[in-house]
Amino acid sequence: MKYLKTIIAILLAVTLRSVNGQNTVEFTYDSNGSRLSRTLEIVQLKSSVISFPVDMTDLEKFETTEKKGIQLFPNPFSSSLKLVINGFDESTVKDAVIFSVSGAELLRFQRLSNECEIQLSSLDDGVYIMRVTIDTEKFVYKIVKKK
């Protein structure tokens, strides 16, 4: 019984540490308390913060490329995206930020016009999140780069 409490305490401590940290450790024991196996997973996280809530398991909700007068095409793209913004003054502050699916900010474009072409040739092929901000309104899109 004493071993069981110790094992539970260790597993609980490791589990709580892995919630805030980057490591996961799993142990398997037999009925005598002997360790049968150990699994150690170390994940290095980047120190970036995504400033809006995104459930990455449900990216399909970001597939629409026209929201409230904003058109974003072609999607998928090979080197650049065209952004057309209707229904907002030309003087309205507009910017766009490209994030990786892990939440790291990759590119930032500021003071965009109502119709512009955004060069994204520096990105590798893959799925990205694009946030377009117009004054205080934010619009989020899933974009795909393919050659």
How would you describe this structure to a colleague?
The protein is mainly beta and 147 residues long. It folds into 2 domains: 2-42, no CATH class; 56-145, Immunoglobulin-like (Sandwich). The protein has one helix spanning 2-20, and strands at residues 23-29, 35-42, 66-67, 70-73, 80-85, 94-100, 105-110, 115-119, 126-134, 137-145.
Considering the chains and any ligands shown, give keywords for the structure.
1 helix; 4-stranded antiparallel beta sheet; 147 residues; 13% helix; 2 domains
Summarize the topology.
Layout: H1 2-20, E1 23-29, E2 35-42, E3 66-67, E4 70-73, E5 80-85, E6 94-100, E7 105-110, E8 115-119, E9 126-134, E10 137-145
Antiparallel strand pairs: 1-2, 3-4, 4-5, 5-8, 6-7, 6-9, 9-10
How far is the first residue's CA from the last residue's CA? Answer: 60 Å
Shape, per Cα inertia axes: elongated
What order do the strands of the largest sheet run in, or round the barrel if closed?
A: 3-4-5-8
User: Which topology of the largest domain does CATH recognise?
Assistant: Immunoglobulin-like
Q: Architecture of the largest domain, according to CATH?
A: Sandwich
The ordered H/E elements are: HEEEEEEEEEE
* SS-derived structural category: mainly beta
CATH superfamily of the largest domain: Purple acid phosphatase-like, N-terminal
Number of separate helices: 1
CATH class assignment of the largest domain: Mainly Beta
Rg for CA atoms: 23 Å
Question: How do you describe this structure in short?
Answer:
This protein is mainly β and 147 residues long. It has one helix and ten strands; from the N terminus they run αββββββββββ.
